[in-house]
Amino acid sequence: MRNHAEAAAAWMRARPWNRPDLAGRLRESWRRHGLGGPDWAGNALRGVTYGGAILLAGSLLLASLPPILADTSTRAVVNAPVILVTAPIDGELDRLRAEPGDPVGGGEVLARIRNERLDRSTLIGLENQTQGTRISLNGLRERISVLTGWLEALDQSIREQREVALSVAQEVEREARAKAASAAATLAEQSTLVARQRRLLEAGVVSREVLLIALHRERAAQEELLATQASLARREAERRSIEAGSYAGESQSALGALIERRRDAALELSRLRVDEAQLSNNLNALSAQTATETARLARLLDAEVAAPSSSHVLRAFASPGQRLNAGDTIAGMVECRNAFVVGIFSVRQAHRLAVGAPVVVEAEGWAEPRYGRVRQVLPRTTDRVDTNYAVPFPPMERREMYVLIDLEPAPPIRATRGGRPAVPCDIGRWVSVEIEGGFLAGMASAALRFSRNALAMIFGQARADAGG
User: Which of 444, 447, 434 is nearest to 349 (CA)?
Assistant: First the structure.
């Protein structure tokens, strides 16, 4: 608009209607075509010039006062929420499988990241601990195996010696029982002899000394019987203790020592089995941690980046071979179904821009206007909000507001020579938004279009004449 105004001012200062050469050429041309005399040609030229100046002034007025004379905003841009695709791991970007403008489906692989500089110290430490624990566990199991064999040998030896001790105890018991029976018979014999000597003494056959000797022998036989009975009782007790598994006798000291050694070995075996269980649990835990760390390193070594949903690639923020950190942005995606127009209007138009109000959207290069409806009205926005969209919101002045508009149907796609859209969904295209249904808006738009066409025709004719 500023270029048009400067060109018009320069043309007015030049006063082409006072130039003899231009006026002469016009008179000569019109005389050849029978269009009248020289005075009529000059007046016609002046009329066209003044008419162009009036149209130019009208277009400048309409352009400078759109909030008052027209319900139209030319500060509007096609926008859409941006979906940032980030790197899941640290590494180098292998390649991008989609270029800006390409459509991609949900779950389709966009890029691959490889990381050859992984820190494997944790995995190496876990593997060393796992190997050391496995070696300790194997050694402990060998000790358990040896101790188990030793216990089995002790049990076999104890069984054999127990059988021998039991057999000996039974023989000794039978011997003690025989001695007890012999002592009892001897006592009976001595008692009979004492009775006989007493009768002989009464008959005066023997002396009293003979009877005393017989009495002493009888007492000795009684003591012998008591001793043999006590020995028999001790032998029976030993036999019963051997049968019960208690080896307390003097003859069973070796067997008792074997039993103590077997008990100590059994306790050691129990302790080793507890250690084996602990080492086995530690080994299982370390193996699980090693497997988890291996899987984690496998994920960090090579990762595929997939599109979160069906969308278009807006721009790439990383190039192949670039080193990325986890969370760095690789590309920005937009979903065309979520595209909208954000325009700036005066607050005077707020009553006509309620949610759902119809509007008409036009842009250079569109075959026909697009219709839409107001989705939201925002008094202001911030830089943090702008980062959520493909392009920043246009700057606005005081007493203005943002109007977000959903297009019906979906916005067109700007295509390049190769047929692939350079910018998906026309993101970033500047458009004009007109409130539908306004009389002043329609009249102002028609006048604006007429003035633009007239100015283009006038300046085009003037350049042609100057070139001729």
Answer: 434
